[in-house]
Design the sequence.
């Protein structure tokens, strides 16, 4: 009698229901009218490309950000979570991709951080330890000592502590955002066992992962997101990988890309050749070449080593092994100063223009000249006239919209700031240009200018390596794209093979699906 | 079973500071013309406790990855205020003490409000408030003077049974009443967490803002306790700008020597107390070895550099150079 009733309840009223959830950041729509239902006793997978709105979705559910519109109900009752603490109190607990542990506190302190057991108003160390041990055991991590400091644990152990911490809050809805990304294979198995046990106990689990094989093994339901919209929800296993990928892509191409020239003839020496580049566990034996006149893209899911690859080339990382050859000369680059030296001729447009690219309170002119002061000075003294001339040229070349070269760069719009970052490096006439997601958060008009500029620079003989989280950009801009997965080049796509479905499939590390949209099944024997 | 090892690990910095103190105090006492006597200990303790109290105050703030440069001024303000109101009948004296401590608490609360709710940089905010607090102290005592309850002063700066300095007993009692509960409270843990990884702490639903605010309040309270002791020690109040500046900077030095990380999140006020005692004892060592006083600042500076360098050894292992620029 009882189980049937529970079953009926589960099928009629979901534990969590979202209706019309909308979230905007500035002018960018992160979530648009999202409806979603998550049932108790089920593992619900969320799928989508970079920027599809998955993170915004869980942030809204977990109370990290407030949706601009829409309603959320838990067990049929309308709820609003002004903070993560409020969500936790209602039984909604999220394990975020960036770990939320405090490195200087012990495992037990971390697990019980938000609500430690108290006696006479003080934390009861013994009770806390018991509860932490129970939570660790529940997370399949009973061999982690509760008094160990978190900073002494390796990453995969920390992830298990993170899960224990979530379980200690007795969640009804547990959200896991890429919870297995840092785990070893053995730990993944442990986590899967734990998650299945939690499902059997009647928890609802919202599971975000880029690993299709994981989703196939774990999920009961799948929801696909695209461009901030909920596309479809279906029972797991009812659609092929190809069909799922087809739902994930199909973003409108709103940008216009300059035409690509004929493939660059394979000249004798590439401008940049990288052989077997490795760094810790993040880069695992990367080899590739970029020739003068070529734009090579770096694709794949966010966090597969693309950023680290650019930083390694620019000399920022210590302990990099492998070989970097510039114009036929093996080089060893000890830092950005070394990388930009005329002999190497490198430039890196960094990821975050506000902290790594610009000095916001300083003027446009000062920022523009900052990477090329050596060229603009004689005997250590700046040549003001040369500086002014160079600044004038650059402002004109890139059409930077600024009242005057003396305006603080922080007063410019995002797109114009980004132009300054790019122009600053062009002043050095670099032969190798590394770009780390250069169009993130800038307007469409500036993006198009940027694409034309990159093509122009390539035509003038630069070798360009472009990392972008926007697949359309990689397809439209690049001659070839290297897809990274787990710190290694998983595939190289060029020409006709450079399609969105191929990019997504290789990014997810599943076999490529035939057909333009991947709807027809693979015909390979 | 292996628990002791983890506990030892977590208190290593404090234990090493305690050990260093015992060793150098041993050297000091052995070479003191009067030898290891109750009087030598009493004098050393009284000087040490002053800095120790301010250093404990500084620890609260430093643990949250902040810094308070107004503590020396609060210390002096409390001294000057005490020389007016901590006098008379036991009741009046008691009310006076409460008044001094409340004043310290209020100063700390202003700092905390500016830093946490006003979003000002701790350094700038506390330099500014420090100047204000010192100005108030000057207004209270344009010239050194005033008076204090002599019986209480004698009792607190004297020796108890067995020659134990009463000031040390007072310090221990204060720590038991304030530090131990803080360390085991939710706010105390949140303060550590805020210093270690503020975003993570916030995302975990820990009361970060309240914890940081409490840390600044506690800093003000302990600086005032120090100032009160100074008044008992000197039987008067003096708005000395030298003392204000010295105690501010020495409290930071003591905190670092005591193994508290300036990046926040790790260390203990107990360590800071030993740091303060070490700092004082080094001064005294130079005295008993009859070194030219001119060498004293240089020697202290070297010791401080050494202590700070030990704390930065981890940077040698950083593999992404971008991490060198953040905490």
Sequence:
């Amino acid at each position: 009698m009882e189980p049937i009733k529970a079953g009926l309840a589960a099928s009629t009223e979901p534990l969590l229901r979202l209706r019309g959830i909308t979230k905007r950041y500035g002018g960018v729509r992160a979530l648009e009218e999202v409806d979603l239902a998550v049932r108790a006793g089920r593992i619900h997978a969320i799928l989508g490309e970079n920027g599809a709105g998955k993170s915004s979705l869980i942030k809204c559910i977990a109370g990290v950000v407030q949706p601009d519109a829409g309603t959320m109900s838990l067990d049929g009752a309308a709820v609003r979570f002004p903070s993560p603490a409020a969500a936790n109190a209602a039984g909604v607990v999220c394990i975020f991709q960036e770990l939320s542990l405090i490195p200087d506190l012990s495992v037990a302190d971390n697990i019980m951080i938000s609500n430690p057991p108290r006696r006479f108003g003080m934390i009861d160390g013994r009770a806390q330890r018991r509860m932490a041990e129970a939570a660790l055991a529940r997370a399949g991590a009973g061999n982690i000592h509760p008094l160990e400091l978190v900073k002494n644990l390796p990453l995969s152990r920390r992830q298990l502590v993170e899960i224990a911490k979530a379980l200690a809050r007795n969640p009804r809805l547990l959200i896991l955002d890429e919870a297995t990304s840092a785990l070893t294979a053995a730990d993944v198995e442990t986590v899967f066992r734990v998650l299945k046990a939690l499902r059997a106990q009647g928890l609802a689990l919202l599971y975000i992962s880029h690993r299709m094989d994981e989703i196939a093994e774990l999920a009961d339901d799948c929801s696909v997101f695209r461009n901030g919209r909920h596309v479809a929800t279906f029972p797991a296993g009812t659609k092929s990988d190809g069909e799922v990928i087809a739902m994930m892509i199909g973003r409108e191409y709103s940008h216009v890309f300059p035409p690509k020239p004929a493939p660059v003839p394979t000249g004798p020496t590439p401008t940049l050749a990288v052989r077997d580049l490795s760094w810790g566990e993040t880069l695992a034996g990367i080899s590739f070449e970029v020739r003068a006149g070529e734009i090579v893209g770096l694709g794949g899911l966010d966090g597969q080593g693309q950023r680290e690859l650019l930083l390694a080339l620019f000399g920022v990382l210590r302990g990099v092994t492998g070989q970097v050859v510039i114009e036929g000369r093996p080089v060893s680059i000890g830092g950005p100063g070394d990388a930009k030296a005329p002999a190497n001729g490198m430039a890196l447009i960094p990821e975050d223009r506000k902290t790594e690219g610009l000095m916001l309170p300083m003027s446009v002119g000062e920022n523009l000249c900052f990477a090329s002061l050596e060229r603009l000075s004689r005997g250590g003294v700046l040549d003001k006239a040369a500086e002014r001339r160079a600044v004038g040229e650059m402002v004109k070349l890139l059409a930077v919209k600024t009242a005057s070269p003396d305006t603080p760069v922080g007063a410019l719009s995002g797109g114009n700031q980004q132009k300054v970052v790019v122009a600053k490096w062009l002043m050095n006439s670099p032969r190798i240009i590394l770009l780390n997601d250069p169009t993130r958060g800038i307007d469409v008009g500036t993006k198009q200018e940027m694409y034309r500029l990159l093509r122009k620079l390539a035509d003038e003989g630069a070798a360009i390596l472009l990392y972008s989280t926007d697949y359309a950009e990689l397809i439209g801009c690049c001659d070839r794209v290297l897809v990274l997965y787990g710190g290694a080049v998983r595939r190289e796509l060029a020409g006709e093979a450079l399609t969105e479905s191929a990019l997504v499939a290789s990014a997810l590390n599943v076999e490529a699906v035939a057909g333009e949209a991947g709807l027809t099944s693979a015909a390979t024997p | 079973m292996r628990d002791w090892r983890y506990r030892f690990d977590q208190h290593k910095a404090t234990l090493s500071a305690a050990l260093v103190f015992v060793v150098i105090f041993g050297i000091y006492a052995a070479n003191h013309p009067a030898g290891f006597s109750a009087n030598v200990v009493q004098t050393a303790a009284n000087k040490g406790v002053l800095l120790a109290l301010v250093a404990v105050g500084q620890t609260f703030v430093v643990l949250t990855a902040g810094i308070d440069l107004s503590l020396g001024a609060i210390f002096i303000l409390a001294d000057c205020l005490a020389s007016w109101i901590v006098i008379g009948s036991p009741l009046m004296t008691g009310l006076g003490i409460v008044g001094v401590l409340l004043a310290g608490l209020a100063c700390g609360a202003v700092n905390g409000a500016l830093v946490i709710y006003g979003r000002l940089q701790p350094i700038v905010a506390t330099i500014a408030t420090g100047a204000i607090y010192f100005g108030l102290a000057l207004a209270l005592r344009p010239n050194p003077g005033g008076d204090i309850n002599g019986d209480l002063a004698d009792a607190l700066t004297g020796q108890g049974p067995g020659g134990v300095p009463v000031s040390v007993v007072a310090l221990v009692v204060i720590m038991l009443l304030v530090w131990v509960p803080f360390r085991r409270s939710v706010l105390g843990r949140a303060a550590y967490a805020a210093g270690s990884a503020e975003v993570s702490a916030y995302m975990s639903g820990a009361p970060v803002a309240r914890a940081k605010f409490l840390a600044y309040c506690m800093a003000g309270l302990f600086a005032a306790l120090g100032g009160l002791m100074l008044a008992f020690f000197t039987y008067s109040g003096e708005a000395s700008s030298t003392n204000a500046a010295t105690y501010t900077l020495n409290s930071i030095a003591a905190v670092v020597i005591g193994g508290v990380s300036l990046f926040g999140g790790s260390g203990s006020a107990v360590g800071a107390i030993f740091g303060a005692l070490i700092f004082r004892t080094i001064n005294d060592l130079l005295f008993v070895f009859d070194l030219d006083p001119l060498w004293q600042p240089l020697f202290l500076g070297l010791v401080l550099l050494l202590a700070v360098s030990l704390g930065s050894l981890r940077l040698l292992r950083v593999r992404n150079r971008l991490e060198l620029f953040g905490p």
Q: What stands out?
A: The two ends of chain B are 34 Å apart (CA to CA). The domain at 14-307 of chain B is CATH 1.10.3470 (ABC transporter involved in vitamin B12 uptake, BtuC).
